[in-house]
Design a protein that fits this description.
- There is one protein chain.
- By secondary structure, this protein is mainly α.
- Among the domains are: about 35 residues; about 250 residues, no CATH class.
- Helices cover about 65% and strands about 0% of the residues.
- The protein has 18 helices and 4 strands.
- It has a two-stranded antiparallel ribbon. Strands 3-4 form a two-stranded antiparallel sheet.
- Helix 7 packs across helix 17 and helix 14 packs across helix 17.
């Protein structure tokens, strides 16, 4: 029996109760999400988490932008899919290897089997839903610039990318705050008599004899190459040592507060608020970040082997950032040595941070690189989940098991 394709029913043929049920469910879900966001925002206001509240407002703005993109994709779906290009142009820069045309001998044997598999799968129905059952460009011997179904798939990927980025940033913030909990013990130690005695302002000591000096002022700190090597490997063991924390705390207080604030100022809470301020920045998707998303999509061209190098870029960036931050701490110690070997305050020299210690004198560049890394990780994970959902296991995006392992482990 020959298969006769049928078009989907329009609103004219759809029961009103079905339309009402779908609209009711969408409205209820939207109101529920809005209520949850409102409750979270109220809780952040009560807890006086201004930066996190602003981050929540930025997430709401991203959701609004996502809705606008969704609207544009829906409205422009037909005009875009109606643009026809030649087949020679349409077969360039494909993400997957182009299948060779079957020979005439095998064509008749394989056509029936492939057609049956096509109709039995959900792809046939989903594609007809997006293209309304036919391809206008095929009648002209051309291909669509981007089919309606491909636009539908892109729509789903953009949504998955935005959700993945927000969840990735939230997870990073949670892990950062968890790691900072042990700093509370160090902060409480600053109120003890032993700490006050060891930081008596009437005492003097050589810079190299302080705990901070013994950690940073060594023979390797005089050589740029050895300095970077030591700082690169040091980040894997104790990224923030106790002596570094107490020294940076002391230097901050001496630069911005009165000396008597040594035992009153909570430096850990200040760093926590700074982390929340940075979270407000990285949780947003700025225009330049969207531009990077376009470049990431472009790099998935077959033959570029992006799975071998793209997931490793954020790893390289974040290792360089970690090493740079360690180098900055050591260079602050070297500045003390350059100004004089004898320092006031036994055990805690006064370090003086400066913008010139950062790349190009721009501390915000570090934050931007971290932003790029978070977004790239979100892109890799979202792309993997999206391709698995749209095309199933063993799709051309993840033919090799190495690709899956690299994407997930690096992300």
């Amino acid at each position: 029996m020959a298969f006769k394709p049928e078009y989907e029913r329009t609103m004219e043929d759809t029961p009103t109760w079905a339309v009402a049920v779908v609209c009711f469910v969408l409205i209820v879900v939207s109101i529920f999400i809005e209520y949850i966001i409102h409750v979270i925002g109220h809780w952040l206001k009560v807890k006086q988490k201004r930066a996190l509240y602003e981050a929540l407002e930025k997430i709401k703005a991203e959701l609004m932008l996502l809705g606008f993109i969704s609207l544009l994709l829906t409205v422009l779906q037909q005009p875009i899919s109606g643009i026809c290009i030649s087949k020679s142009v349409g077969t360039t820069w494909r993400p997957c290897e182009q299948l060779k045309s079957p020979t005439k001998k095998n064509y008749q044997n394989s056509t029936g089997r492939k057609l049956l598999q096509f109709l039995e799968s959900g792809f046939g129905e989903r594609r007809r839903l997006a293209t309304k059952g036919y391809d206008k460009c095929a009648e002209k011997g051309k291909v669509a610039f981007m089919s309606a179904y491909a636009i539908h798939q892109l729509h789903i990927f953009i949504s998955a990318l935005a959700v993945s980025h927000v969840l990735n940033c939230i997870a990073t913030l949670a892990l950062g705050r968890t790691k900072m909990r042990k700093w509370k013990v160090w902060e409480d130690e600053t109120t003890t008599l032993e700490y006050k005695y060891s930081n008596d302002p009437e005492r003097f000591r050589f810079a190299r004899d302080t705990s901070f000096g013994r950690r940073h002022l060594n023979f390797w700190s005089e050589s740029t190459i050895l300095l970077w090597l030591v700082c690169f490997f040091r980040q894997f063991f104790r990224s923030v040592a106790k002596v570094d924390y107490l020294t940076l705390r002391h230097g901050f207080i001496m630069a911005h507060l009165a000396p008597e604030s040594q035992t009153k100022f909570d430096f850990r809470k200040y760093i926590t608020r700074s982390l929340e301020e940075d979270f407000k920045v990285v949780v947003g998707i700025s225009p330049i970040i969207w531009f990077f998303a376009v470049l990431f999509l472009l790099s998935n061209t077959y033959g570029w082997y992006s799975y071998l190098w793209l997931p490793f870029l954020p790893l390289i960036i974040i290792l360089m950032v970690g090493a740079k931050l360690q180098v900055i701490i050591t260079k602050m110690g070297l500045r003390i040595q350059d100004t004089g070997d004898v320092v006031k305050d036994k055990g805690t020299p006064v370090v003086r941070p400066g913008d010139d210690l950062f790349w190009f004198g721009r501390p915000r560049l570090i934050l931007f690189l971290i932003h790029i890394v978070l977004f790239q990780n979100a892109f890799q994970l979202a792309f993997f989940v999206w391709s698995l959902y749209e095309f199933g296991k063993g799709n051309c995006f993840h033919k090799r098991i190495e690709d899956i392992v690299v994407r997930i482990s690096m992300g």
